[in-house]
Specification:
Order of helices and strands: EEEHEEHEH
Strand order of the largest sheet: 1-2-3
Oligomer: single chain
Largest sheet: 3 strands, antiparallel
Strand content: 25-35%
Distance between the termini: 63 Å
Structural class: alpha+beta
Helix content: 25-40%
Shape: flat
Number of helices: 3
Number of domains: 1
Radius of gyration: 19 Å
Number of strands: 6
C-alpha cells in the first residue's frame, strides 16, 4: 500500500504525500478522527477519476474540491499513520486559543 520514498515524503500507489509544517493542525485532526484517511485528489480523465495527489490534510483536499477536482478518502494504512504521527509529534505546536474581550454594553462611556 504505502512505501517511504524519502524521510519526509510518503508514496501511496504512485501518488506522493509530502508533509508541510503549516498543515500540522489538519494532520493532527485527521489522526484523532474516527477514520484517519489518505485523500486521493483526482481529475476526470475519460469519464473516470485519475489520482494525481495523495494528501493527509483534509484542508488541502477541500481546497482541490473547491477548485473543481475530486478527493476520495481511503483508510489510512497503519504504517502511514505511524509515519504521520511521528511527523506531527515532532513539528506540531498547537496555537494558543485567545479569548476575545467582550464589550461591556453597560458601560456608559462608549
Amino acid at each position: 500500500m504505502g512505501d517511504i520514498r524519502c524521510g519526509s515524503e510518503r508514496s501511496w500507489r504512485g501518488c506522493r504525500a509530502c508533509p508541510w509544517r503549516n498543515e500540522c493542525e489538519s494532520y493532527y485532526c485527521n489522526l484523532i478522527s474516527d477514520r484517519p484517511a489518505v485523500y486521493l485528489v483526482c481529475r476526470e480523465e475519460d469519464d473516470r477519476p485519475e489520482p494525481f495527489l495523495a494528501t493527509l490534510s483534509y484542508d488541502e483536499a477541500s481546497s482541490y474540491i473547491e477548485g473543481g477536482d475530486s478527493a476520495h478518502p481511503v483508510a489510512m494504512p497503519p504504517e502511514v499513520y505511524r509515519w504521520l504521527e511521528r511527523y506531527v509529534l515532532e513539528h506540531y505546536v498547537p496555537e494558543k486559543k485567545l479569548k476575545r474581550k467582550r464589550d461591556d454594553w453597560k458601560d456608559e462611556r462608549r
